[in-house]
Amino acid sequence: MLDDPARAAGELLAEAATPGANLALSGGSTVGKAYGAAAARQGVWRDVHVWFGDERVVPGDDEDSNFRLVREALLDALGGLPEVHRVLGELSAEEAAALYDVELEGVTLDLALNGIGPDGHTASLFPGAETLDESERRAVPAEPGLEPFVARVTLTRPVFAATATLVYLVTGEAKADAVRRSFAAEASTRTPASLVRGRRTIVLLDAAAASLLP
Length: 214
Hints:
Layout: H1 5-16, E1 22-25, H2 29-41, E2 49-52, E3 54-56, H3 66-73, E4 83-84, H4 93-103, E5 111-114, E6 139-142, E7 152-155, H5 157-162, E8 165-170, H6 176-183, E9 200-205
Parallel strand pairs: 1-2, 1-5, 2-4, 5-8, 8-9
Antiparallel strand pairs: 3-7, 6-7
Helix pairs in contact: 1-2
């Protein structure tokens, strides 16, 4: 439990942003604050590879695009830019996922920054979805479980399981029950975040998000 978990997540990102590193980023207002903190801590990300844990199938300049958030909150503040591996959201979900799956071949993530939704989803792995059972592909199309109701592309559980460090950043009372189900209850497809772990998993919470933990 931290006073400023977003800043702590930004510090972890900055420490991981070394040449050759593969980092998977996500969307949401909380992670946006983490990206600002990361850019302030480490302003040169040259030769770092930036991937996306999930993306909405929209053009890169759309307000719902995770790429747009990362560009505005992180990339625009950097002096030395990383190599960005964008999901091509202007294509169909099936086409974009297939291309991303090929691009990810042979890649092992050093760090992934994930959030958790109030329904317990993480990335675009939603409760009860068939994507939770995917064991061969690295990226797959996904139907939305919450607003905005647009198709998605998401990394799969095996990709996250191979990740050196998976960081969960969660804030707010609205996420408290999802946090409890993810980290203090039996793992279940009803709470996808309870099933998604890296080789090392770090959970960064504020007091409100942690309020229902034992």
